[in-house]
Design a protein that fits this description.
Blueprint lengths: L7 H8 L13 H21 L14 E5 L7 H6 L3 E6 L2 H13 L5 E4 L2 H6 L4 E7 L8 H10 L1 E12 L3 H14 L16 H9 L3 E12 L4 E5 L5 E8 L1
Parallel strand pairs: 1-2, 1-4, 2-3, 4-5
Antiparallel strand pairs: 5-8, 6-7, 6-8
Length: 244
Amino acid sequence: MTATTINADEVKKFSDLAEQWWDPAGQFKPLHKFNPVRLAYIREHILRHFDRDGTRRHPLEGISILDIGCGGGLLCEPMARLGADVTGADASERNISIARIHAEQSGLGITYTATTSEKLAETGRKFDVVLNMEVVEHVADVPLYLKSCADLVNPGGLMFIATINRTAKAYALAIVGAEYVLNWLPKGTHQYSKFLTPEEITSIISRHGMRVIDRTGVSYHPLHDQWRRTRDMSVNYMLLAQKD
């Protein structure tokens, strides 16, 4: 294991695109399209787990949430609007700078910090919810990353993980299709060798007190131009784990 989860090439890749985080027609257009389905999944399970009334204006008030690898804050801001105490962390200083500016312009009080999961875990901080979305396939040391993320979860708290499965179908759709045919993503955004199966992630986090309590696939429906949950986890999927 290395001493850091930072993959310098990946950090530079996303830093170079930092100014486009909030452009729904820019390089992060696929993520903007993907955001509603993951936000609905996160909101639904947090409300259920913490027994909150979803009809209230700020149903997540008092719940601490960490978005690790937060980018420009596409998840942080909706969570803050729901009343949560949100911290966004990212290894890219440029991403954090963009996120801070946008949050200020939106009138949202979000704590942003340029750091890694392992450095944050070393401080002893804990959160009720850790959002680990579309990050694990970009880090240099997967076991260290997942361990540090698990260490950041309060006992009884939740961690959401979203990533891409390592299957032939995922290679065809997420790399060849999305990057080379449809040009949804810049070429080289993903590396097939970095994809992880649900079983691999489950095995690692189970060694650090996390138990998977829900899982779902996510697929794109071109006729409706939207992402939806599905039983098929062969490409994009989300896992929900609870800290013992």
